[in-house]
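Consider the tokenized backbone below.
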């Protein structure tokens, strides 16, 4: 059993999350405690905020985000007497700085976590403002109700009560009105009249039921009817009104029922808070939070809201997504500056906006030079292709900035399908992968998503991420393919071929992971490991087979290894540690890696060749190199590409291939170079190559790549 300190699993993850939540609550309480009006100590406030912090963590990870629950967190702040405006700003600052850090969903990207955190902050602020407003309204309503009831219940103190009531009524910062049960306004204060334009005749004498607005909530007037019937004591709602000049007044409306001494309904008490400016501010803040500051297009936040709605819709609804990335935009920023790049992006945004004007279409900027266009409806299979064509067409005309013309090109990945089958993250990932497929095909085009291509790209990404750990976990191994003397058929040596025993995909050949290792830079440590293992194995063979000289070992070098400054030192170190003679090692470099190579690139190969290490020019004949360049390359072996000898597998052999191979062998021998042929699969092919003068060969005709003991067995067979 593992020690308790090493126990892992759901319980450990839950404990770790609880510890982070307590640290978050500590930071939160320290931030807001100085601006609270509470009798609690700071540690007591921290304990009060801990369950609220748990709710914040849950909401950040919950899908979809529950805005009402976020608002309840803002209300909880007011309940804790954190009513100072600084308490809200400090709370939002703590949430912005620490919530994602301590409670972020590791399955989501950093940008998605930040976007959800921003929406959660908006909900908390809205809940805080609403709770604070309700608290104020409740206090003012209580005062107004107390004053009115006192006037009816205490006739003997009518004068004193009237003075107090009038002070509240006339001096209130909110609009107050009294109406009978038929809806006739009997009395209003100056604040209410000013809210409606200051003209008394437009307010007094009117019925409450005349103030209908098209954006009234459906239940507003049902609440009103219940109240005048005595079935409801009060109701509260957000309601717009038309002013006499036609403008709209937005209010928080509270209507309460006043009863007489016997409890019968008698009057309506109306309280109105003008929220027009706050509503406009919220709309502006919402716009700024959901639109790109540079281009004015919807940003990631608004786009993901629309995309989430589109991909989750059912009942036959479909969607189409175009993911656009500008080709070569980085070069404009790097050469002409970001100001020019920004102006170009604004022009591109305007053109894209003109392409998506139909109902159900939208264009957004994700960031940098990445844009998306979304279309929804029953016929998106056709519409999304047309939308992509319009986008590419709109970019075809050059963009002129400061008298300079720029040609704009773009690559588009398209994902189209029915709603309810994929998540928004899956759709965007597929579109991104498809866009890069269009870019790799030359750009200035669009490609349709292909699930198989997506799967291959995802697999490549997974392999790339797994490569570093695979080397640490010893998941790589080497197979050896014998190199055979064509003259006598004896085993001359072997080529080391690395394999990856992947825990999920099984044994992978080098074509599956070597390109990934080259792109990530892991090829250098991986190549050194292959060199160490191959040289160690060659040294072991040399101790077992003393007749006929040591077996040679061929090891491939990638272009990245060739350019690594430690190549020579690493090779010398490996040879010295193993005790293998340099002449028993041959390093293979592809012809394409040496095309146009300068002396700096050739210098390490020259140093190795001077030490006695053989250098083989691999895949010779595929790189279109100048044959005259062979004289300046420090190579001693040409490895002829299998494409030149495939024609020898048929009978009779292709005469053109025979002439080509004969010419290459003659040239190589004149330059004192040995010739090795790859891909020998038949005896007739081997005999033809022997007659043409080739020195060594390898291929399935002799043996497939295998474990090192197979080379041992082949050498023993030759000895017999």
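A designed sequence for it:
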């Amino acid at each position: 059993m593992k020690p308790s300190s090493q126990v892992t699993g759901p319980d450990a993850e839950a404990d770790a999350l609880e510890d982070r939540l307590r640290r978050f609550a500590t930071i939160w309480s320290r931030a807001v405690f100085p601006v609270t009006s509470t009798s609690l100590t700071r540690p007591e406030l921290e304990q009060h905020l801990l369950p609220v912090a748990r709710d914040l963590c849950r909401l950040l990870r919950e899908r979809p985000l529950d805005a009402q629950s976020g608002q309840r967190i803002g209300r909880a702040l007011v309940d804790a007497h954190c009513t100072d405006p600084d308490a809200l700003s400090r709370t939002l600052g703590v949430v912005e700085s620490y919530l994602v850090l301590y409670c972020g969903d590791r399955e989501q990207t950093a940008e998605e976590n930040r976007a959800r955190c921003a929406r959660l902050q908006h909900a908390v602020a809205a809940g805080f403002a609403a709770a604070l407003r309700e608290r104020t309204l409740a206090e003012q309503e209580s005062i107004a109700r107390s004053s009115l009831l006192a006037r009816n219940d205490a006739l003997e103190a009518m004068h004193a009560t009237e003075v107090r009531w009038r002070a509240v009524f006339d001096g209130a910062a909110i609009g107050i009105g009294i109406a009978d049960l038929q809806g006739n306004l009997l009395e209003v204060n100056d604040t209410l009249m000013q809210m409606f334009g200051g003209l008394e005749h437009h307010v007094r004498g009117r019925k409450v039921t005349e103030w209908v607005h098209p954006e009234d909530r459906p239940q507003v007037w049902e609440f009103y009817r219940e109240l005048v019937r005595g079935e409801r004591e009060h109701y509260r709602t957000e309601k717009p009104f038309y002013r006499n000049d036609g403008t709209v007044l937005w209010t928080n409306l509270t209507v309460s029922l006043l009863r007489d001494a016997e409890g019968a309904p008698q009057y309506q008490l109306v309280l109105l808070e003008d929220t027009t400016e706050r509503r406009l501010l919220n709309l502006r803040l919402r716009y700024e939070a959901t639109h790109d500051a540079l281009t004015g297009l919807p940003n990631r936040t608004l786009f993901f809201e629309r995309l989430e709605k589109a991909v989750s819709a059912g009942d036959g609804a479909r969607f189409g997504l175009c993911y656009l990335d500008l080709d070569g935009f980085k070069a404009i920023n790097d050469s002409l500056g970001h100001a020019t790049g920004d102006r170009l992006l604004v022009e591109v945004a305007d053109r894209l906006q003109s392409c998506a004007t139909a109902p159900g279409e939208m264009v957004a900027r994700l960031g940098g030079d990445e844009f998306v266009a979304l279309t929804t409806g029953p016929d998106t299979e056709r519409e999304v292709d047309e939308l992509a064509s319009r986008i590419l067409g709109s970019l075809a005309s050059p963009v002129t900035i400061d008298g300079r013309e720029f040609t704009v090109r773009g690559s588009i990945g398209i994902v189209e399908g029915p709603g309810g089958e994929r998540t928004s993250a899956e759709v965007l990932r597929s579109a991104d992968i498809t866009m890069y497929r269009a870019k790799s095909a030359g750009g200035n085009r669009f490609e349709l998503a292909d699930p198989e291509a997506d799967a291959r790209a995802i697999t490549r990404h997974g392999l790339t991420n797994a490569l570093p750990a695979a080397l640490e976990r010893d998941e790589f191994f080497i197979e050896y393919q014998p190199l055979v003397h064509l003259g006598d058929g004896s085993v001359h040596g072997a080529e080391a071929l690395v394999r990856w025993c992947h825990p999920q995909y099984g044994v992978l050949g080098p074509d599956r992971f070597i390109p990934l290792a080259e792109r990530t830079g892991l090829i250098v440590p991986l190549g050194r490991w292959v060199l160490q293992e191959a040289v160690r194995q060659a040294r072991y063979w040399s101790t077992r087979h003393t007749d006929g000289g040591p077996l040679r070992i061929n090891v491939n070098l990638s272009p990245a290894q060739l350019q690594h400054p430690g190549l020579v030192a690493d090779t010398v170190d490996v040879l010295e540690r193993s005790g293998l003679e340099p002449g028993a090692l041959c390093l293979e470099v592809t012809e394409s890696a040496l095309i146009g190579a300068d002396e700096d690139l050739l210098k390490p190969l020259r140093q190795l060749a001077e030490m006695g290490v053989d250098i083989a020019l691999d895949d010779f004949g595929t790189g279109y190199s100048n044959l005259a360049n062979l004289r300046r390359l420090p190579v001693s072996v040409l490895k002829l590409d299998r494409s030149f000898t495939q024609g020898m597998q048929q009978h009779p052999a292709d005469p053109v291939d025979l002439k080509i191979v004969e010419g290459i062998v003659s040239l190589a021998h004149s330059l004192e170079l040995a010739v090795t042929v790859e891909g020998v699969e038949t005896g007739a092919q081997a005999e033809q190559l022997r007659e043409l003068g080739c020195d060594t060969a390898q291929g399935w005709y002799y043996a497939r790549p295998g474990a090192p003991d197979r080379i041992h067995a082949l050498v023993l067979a030759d000895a017999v």
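The chain has 24 helices and 21 strands.
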